[in-house]
Write a structure and sequence with these properties.
eight-stranded mixed β-sheet, alpha/beta
Length: 304
């Protein structure tokens, strides 16, 4: 049976470190990456750490439905299938105004949720009977009290969340942080609804919170003075309660993707290696079902 796992956003940060950990465990990999040169470098670094691992690259931009659609078709027809897992890790946080994807959707929602929604749907027929689907979420969906003051998500009709014209811009990047938190709430709604739809199939779906990871590149779009301050404070931030090194979070993510300890577990939210309660609003099944329905409509529209 195939041991191949697809990881998006695998050219750097959490995705790359998790891929290396999985390769060291003997898993074969498909790296879903936007930048071809960075993807090749990542693949080479993984092969250097685990020479026996088979590492393939699938160029895809999760903000573009067409890009995801074409990449998924190539993966489904490749020797990488059947897949033992899909880790939906790629994500962005935009603070410099509201941006639009190639399909005309709000960029954060498109990248962090919609592209992954379509990727999994396209590859469900290429999964092993006990495959695992994981979406990298975040405690920022819980609101400021549980996310170091990060603004709370602002849920809306999913069609409006996908519309750049209706999304908050705000000053000082606050609008971008709200959009990011909302996209992480969407990740959890999606996983819970997917788990319900997969019930009895053997395939599982779970959400993963990597914790506060100051070492990752999510701050790359912040103003230079903020980035510099962030870099200076990183050694201190990693010592805060709830903070985690990228390496530890990557090991936890690899554990969730492969460990027999969580075989058959589905529809859960993990912080590290501990099952954890997500926010109260994240259990709203009507919202989750609506998000699924609207996501299907948005994908159809993008594909013409």
């Amino acid at each position: 049976m195939s041991d191949t796992i697809l990881i998006t956003g695998a050219s750097s940060g959490l995705g790359l470190l998790a891929a290396r950990e999985l390769a060291r465990q003997g898993r074969d990999l498909v790296l879903g990456c936007r930048n071809e040169a960075k993807a090749a470098q990542a693949a080479d670094s993984i092969r250097a750490a685990a020479p026996d691992a088979r590492v393939e690259v699938a160029i895809m931009d999760t903000s573009s439905i067409r890009s995801v659609h074409e990449a998924a078709a190539r993966i489904a027809d490749s020797a990488a299938t059947p897949l033992a897992g899909i880790v939906c890790n790629a994500g962005i946080q935009i603070v410099d105004g509201v941006q639009s994807s190639a399909d005309g959707y709000e960029m954060t929602f498109a990248t962090n949720h919609l592209g992954h929604f379509h990727l999994v749907e396209q590859l469900r027929g290429a999964l092993t009977p006990q495959a695992r689907i994981i979406a990298v979420a975040s405690e920022v969906h819980q609101g400021p009290a549980k996310s170091f003051g990060f603004p709370a998500p602002r849920w809306d009709d999913p069609a409006r969340l996908a519309d750049p014209a209706t999304q908050p811009s705000g000053s000082g990047g606050r609008g971008g942080r709200i959009r990011y938190a909302t996209s992480k709430l969407a990740n959890i709604y999606y996983i819970y609804e997917l788990a319900r739809r997969l019930a009895g199939s053997g395939v599982t779906a779970n959400a993963f919170d990597p914790g506060l990871m100051p070492e990752t590149g999510l701050a790359r779009d912040y103003p230079s003075v903020v980035r510099q301050g962030y870099q200076v404070l990183t050694p201190l931030l990693t010592k805060l309660p709830g903070a985690a090194t990228a390496a530890r979070s990557a090991a936890d993510l690899a554990w969730l993707a492969t460990s027999p300890d969580v075989a058959g577990v589905s529809g859960k939210y993990y912080s590290g290696r501990r099952e954890h309660a997500s926010s109260r609003e994240s259990y709203d099944t009507a919202r989750a079902a609506e998000l699924w329905q609207v996501s299907e409509q948005l994908v159809r529209k993008a594909l013409g």
